[in-house]
Design a protein that fits this description.
The complex is a heterodimer of chains A (266) and B (267). Chain A has 266 residues and is an all-alpha fold. In chain A, 73% of the residues lie in helices and 0% in strands. In chain A, helix 2 (24-51) packs antiparallel against helix 3 (60-80). Chain B has one domain (2-259). Chain B has helices at residues 2-10, 12-18, 21-45, 57-70, 85-91, 104-133, 142-169, 177-191, 202-209, 213-216, 218-225, 233-259. In chain B, helix 3 (21-45) runs antiparallel to helix 4 (57-70) and helix 7 packs antiparallel against helix 11. The two termini of chain B are 33 Å apart. Classes of the chains: A mainly alpha (266), B mainly alpha (267). The A-B interface holds A 23, 26, 29-30, 32-33, 36-37, 40, 43-44, 47-48, 50-52, 54-56, 89, 92, 118, 174-180, 183, 187, 190-191, 198-200, 203, 206 and B 20, 22-23, 26-27, 30, 33, 36-37, 40-41, 43-49, 52-53, 77, 79-80, 174-179, 181-182, 185, 189, 194-195, 199-200. Chain A: The chain crosses the membrane at residues 27-52, 64-82, 112-134, 146-172, 202-221, 233-254.
Chain lengths: 266, 267
């Protein structure tokens, strides 16, 4: 991206932010919904941790690292790439046709459609949980571990973005595919926050190789805390890299789908 | 003639779904996978635990699977057809609700009835399959089944009014996406959709008792699995009925106020 393009992105984002401030109550509520959504994940995880101690052989301080990583990755996804989640709606409203006429890549225009105010709440709660998880952790936080944790969060963000980009690519051909995006968000929120070894092997396999949810936070947390998983160590350790590769693949799929886009009305 | 109008209004949203095969396929797959995942999760969690919060493994699994099935009852996508109240207010098309020979409140009720009946077909199909494969336990007696059905009916009635209140909010606020999302979240959390309310701290359960949300799902499912004994059923059903009456009166009053706020474009 050239310097000029970056300047345009910054200016559009600043304008989008000002637009969000037009309705102050709505702005504050949008911040709140981001926080509330994340809190719901914490509530669910806390209820399970309280009632079912020693979940899957993990103690609670280790388990906390899973929702903390996932939620921070999710918050960053919402802030930087989250408009992909709403691409289906933009396709249904025919906005893609307008984007195709403008001198800016369609993907960038989708991302610049509005400012994600809820990301403020998302990231605030996620950062709080991460601080809490790290302070309760007994691990020795060496430079290597911290670097891997940062890579894991970024990899998780890219993997989540990749999944939503795939759904958006499908929505370019079948607008009703937008429905899958909502399910995906629900699955990530419900099953992405605790050790997947509590599930039967087949179901865990589905959430590893079918929907690669395990690579977002479970495998990186297992690597950091030294827990065994159902996959070889090298594969679990490569989670951040897989996130990057998945995102690059998803962007190629998006470009291919966009070339074959024929409008929602045929 | 009135029946024809009612039928046409009731089938609006289900028809939209029936005409979109990818969405139908997605619903089937989502429901199947979600049931399997929830069933696996709760069985996995109970692998090293006995009874907790008054629920044993089979009760918890049955509750969780039934909650997934019940969530199908009102989950049709109105947004794609630009048919949510929020969109009608945004685009100004709400005015057409007031120009038809059918009062808006009746149109809304008929449409919701159609959606709930369509969702019920999915839920009943799913329930039959789950019962056949042993994923859920059958009701412990005919009396429990009868009480559950009555409680579920009242629960859906309360849910209808809760969703109506959310939609009515759109008449009074220009931008309310966030408020809608927060209220929907509260509905799901306090109804026990995410996890049975029995697992939450006491203060949370006490707070929920003063709100209508638990009447929509937690009460009927708790009756079904036996967490609420039959001896307490009369009180719980009376509370549900009281919520139906209170919310009916409230929403009726709000409909009148809402009508005063609708103006056609140009004033």
């Amino acid at each position: 991206m050239s310097l000029k393009a970056l300047r345009i992105v910054w200016r559009v984002t600043a304008l989008n932010f000002r637009a969000q401030l037009e309705y102050r109550t709505e702005f504050l509520l949008m911040v709140a919904i981001g926080a509330v959504w994340q809190v719901s994940v914490i509530v669910f995880a806390t209820v399970l941790l309280t009632r079912f101690t020693g979940m899957g052989g993990w103690d609670s301080s280790d388990v906390l690292l899973i929702p903390a990583t996932r939620m921070l990755a999710h918050g960053l996804f919402v802030l930087f790439l989250g408009r992909m989640h709403w691409a289906g709606r933009q396709i249904q409203e025919g906005r893609i046709d307008v984007y195709l006429l403008r001198p800016m890549p369609v993907h960038r225009q989708v991302q610049l459609a509005y400012f994600p105010t809820n990301a403020i709440g998302d990231l605030t709660v996620a950062a709080g949980l991460m601080v809490g998880a790290l302070s309760r952790s007994d691990l020795d936080w060496t430079a290597g571990r911290i670097t891997y944790l940062i890579a894991a969060v970024l990899g998780g963000m890219l993997l989540e973005a990749a999944l939503f980009t795939v759904v958006a690519s499908a929505a370019l051909r079948f607008p009703a595919a937008d429905y899958w995006g909502r399910w995906l968000e629900e699955l990530l929120g419900t099953f992405g926050s605790y050790p997947l070894n509590v599930l039967p092997r087949a179901v865990g396999g589905l959430l590893t190789y079918g929907l690669p949810l395990a690579f977002v936070a479970y495998f990186p947390a297992a690597v950091l805390t030294g827990h065994d998983t159902a996959v070889p160590y090298w594969l679990a350790a490569a989670s951040p890299l897989l996130g990057l590769l998945a995102y690059l693949g998803a962007r190629l799929l998006w470009r291919w789908a966009l070339r074959h886009y024929s409008g929602v009305n045929g | 003639m009135a029946m024809v109008h009612a039928w046409r209004a009731a089938r609006v949203t289900p028809l939209g779904e029936l005409h979109a095969p990818p969405r139908m396929t997605a619903v089937l797959l989502r429901l199947s996978v979600q049931v399997v995942l929830v069933w696996s999760l709760w069985r996995g969690l109970y692998a090293q635990t006995g009874t907790t919060a008054g629920l044993d493994r089979d009760q918890a699994v049955t509750y969780a699977v039934l909650a997934v099935l019940a969530s199908r009852l009102r989950e049709l996508d109105q947004y794609t057809g630009r048919d949510t109240v929020l969109q009608h207010m945004h685009f100004g098309t709400i005015v057409y609700w007031y120009l038809r020979p059918l009062p808006p409140q009746r149109y809304y009720a008929l449409r919701a009835l159609g959606e709930q009946l369509y969702g019920l077909a999915w839920a009943l199909g799913g329930y039959a399959v789950c019962l056949a494969v042993g994923a859920v336990e059958p009701p412990r007696s005919a009396a429990v089944a009868g009480v559950f059905l009555l409680s579920m009916l009242l629960g859906q009635w309360v849910l209808y009014y809760v969703m109506l209140v959310l939609d009515q909010l759109c008449f009074f606020t220009l931008r309310n996406n966030a408020a809608m999302l927060i209220l929907l979240f509260a509905q799901n959390l306090l109804a026990g959709v995410y996890a049975p309310l029995w697992f939450f701290p006491d203060w949370f359960i006490t707070m929920s008792a003063f709100l209508p949300f638990q009447a929509t799902l937690s009460v009927p499912l708790s009756l079904y699995v036996g967490r609420i004994p039959l001896s307490d059923a009369a009180l719980q059903i009376a509370v549900q009925a009281a919520w139906v009456v209170a919310l009916a009166l409230f929403t009726r009053w709000v409909w009148r106020r809402a009508a005063q706020r609708v103006i056609s474009q140009g004033g």
